Amino acid sequence: MNHVLVDYTAGTFGDWLRYFIAEHNGFQKLPFETETLYEKFLKLKIDNNKVCLNNVKTTNDFIKEFEKISNSDLRQCYKYVSDLNVPASHSCVGANWLEDGSIIDGKPFKWDYTNYNLIRETDHKIVFVILSPFSKYKDLYIKRHELWKENLKFKDNWKEYHETIWKKNYMKDNLPKHKLNYQLEINNLLDKDDETYYSLIKFLDVNPIDKWKDYINDFDRLILSK
């Protein structure tokens, strides 16, 4: 049974994607609601499908942590969580708005593949969520990060800095490649691109949802149009 880790390299859209994937047969369902605190964003109503890797040192440690959420015969679509004070707390490879070499708290920041390597020793599939900085969803992504700007350690020019690094990371495409890894450009899925959707479900090894675009319409109605 290949469970699925959704890695939030793009942030913001990850919970919706987990909900959408879990609507396919074979997965434990993940109901969601809009998030009033962040206005127009989405959160899962009951989000027990997350694995904290703060104290995980080996693959066996990870398996034990994962077993805490895997309490059914259904596939799990889960996320990675680390200490929220650590950059990239939802990315198992450290891929987020930071660039290798960025000085954070006086130290150079470095993408860290340690946890990724532990997970990759399992048969779990990993979906890396990528958002194009040139897509129409850019402003939605930036708006979410604006809520966190006090923690971004860049004062007046934080937005310009963020966009610059985002574009650099997007163009570099340094995410690890593996037959059980998949890079999903979420903006293409949200634009109802058939090729993107059918490529995703082929990777997930699930049957398509006949009216899958209705989920995109709901996303637009609940999140984009308000």
- What is Rg? 17 Å
Helical segment count: 8
Mean pLDDT: 83
Helical content (DSSP H or I, runs of 4+): 25-40%
Order of helices and strands: EHEEEHEEEHEHHEHHH
* Overall tally of structural domains: 1
Coarse shape:
globular
Terminal CA distance = 39 Å
SSE-based structural type: alpha/beta
Proportion of residues in extended strands: 15-25%
**Neighbour order of strands in the largest sheet:** 4-5-1-8-9
Give the uncertain stretches in residue-range form: 36-40
Question: Could you give a short account of the major beta sheet?
Answer: 5 strands, parallel
Give a count of the beta strands, DSSP E runs of length 2 or more: 9
Please summarize what this structure is.
The chain is α/β, with parallel strands linked by helices. It has helices at about 15-20, 60-65, 115-120, 140-145, 160-170, 185-190, 195-205, 215-225; strands spanning about 5, 30-35, 40-45, 50, 75-80, 105, 105-110, 125-130, 180-185. The longest helix is centred in the last third of the chain and has 15 residues, at about 160-170.
